[in-house]
Amino acid sequence: MIYADNAATTKMSDAAVAAMLPYLKEYYGNPSSLYMFGQKAKEAIEEARATVAACIGAEPREIIFTSGGSEADNQAIRSAAMRGKTAGKRHIISDTIEHHAVLHTLRQLEKEGFEVTYLPAHENGIVHVDELEAAIRDDTCLVTIMYANNEIGTIQPIREIAAICKSRSVMFHTDAVQAVGHTPLNVKDDGVDMLSASAHKFHGPKGVGFLYAKRGVRLFNLIEGGAQERGLRAGTENVAGIVAMAAALKEATDHLNDNAAKLTKLRDRLIAGLSGIPHAALNGDANQRLPGNVSFCFEGIEGESLLLLLDDKGVCASSGSACTSGSLDPSHVLLAIGRVHDVAHGSLRLTLGEDATEADVDYIIAAVKDVVEHLRGFSPVWRDLCAGKAKFIL
Ligand SMILES: *Cc1c(COP(=O)(O)O)cnc(C)c1O
User: Fold this and answer.
1) Which residues form the pocket of ligand 1, taking CB atoms under 6 Å from any ligand atom?
2) Crossing angle of the two packed helices 303-312 and 358-377, in degrees rounded to 10
3) Which of 117, 167, 301, 318 could cysteine-pair with 375, CB 3.0–4.6 Å?
4) What pLDDT is stored for residue 329 in this prediction?
């Protein structure tokens, strides 16, 4: 089997599994307990906090552990909205290709009286900085733009966006779930105020993540209860998960440049191979994209059938994000970058892992070519296109 769905989730690294085991089997005490046994777990959490902070250029006290990327996104956005509301500011700026963890939180805030401007991501999936600048108003309390997109892999101009927000005194949050551990990132150099990340996207366990909030940025908690995480996130800490996340992030960060260089080469080989299929197009920008991300649309086929036949050939892939697979609506991201419904339906996302090889890539190219040709063979849409009854778009 070739696993090419690393944007949906990744395999845990050996280092992460090894790091978490002692905290499941031996040091299972509650970190809030006063005896030594519990304190050992508490120390492990603080050590993990220092490691995670160092990996992104933050200070330990700027890291809040959460249950994952979705919770971090919710907490960051809701905190900024609460602060904004107090100051009479109810305007938020985001964009059309955000993850649902951001979009659905914003939709809820709209129902609660906030106004949201969604910037277009344009054909290449990248937000225009001048359009962001023009959208900022006196009552803007938050800009939230993702670091890198989970479907089409495009990387946004985060530094420029952060600089504009800073000059206009507007809070800036970025959903960096796809970027952390995959592309060089430093919260101080980038100038972001809040950043979300999730362990299972960088070879850590599922169900744990973190929110970076710059010193001085006030957070509100979503979950009421005990005083864990300085009162900002109640609930007994996921000690083993937190320790494993730190181990995974340390490993990913230590090897980031080598992994990115290797993956970029494989990605471009895969893109070149798939580009040989007629009436196919790459989604997103060819250069400003995540090292392992390949996203294509093929005219005249259904993405779902493509995935099932690829599965038969031992290739795990996705049509868009894991969250929209299973629903018949085409991806909001592909529609937002201008793909029409029929074309957006024929989508394929392949996200390579660090252990992928050239042979894997060549196998995937051959498999996709075969399957696309096969499906087009009995597609009425394809027949009409070839007969000139409908116009090719790609
Ligand atoms: C996966 C993902 C999330 C959600 O993270 P979870 O830890 O699964 O809640 C949010 N944003 C992006 C961009 C993602 O890829």
Assistant:
1) 68-70, 73, 99, 101, 146, 150, 175, 177-178, 198, 200-201, 209
2) 130
3) 301
4) 79
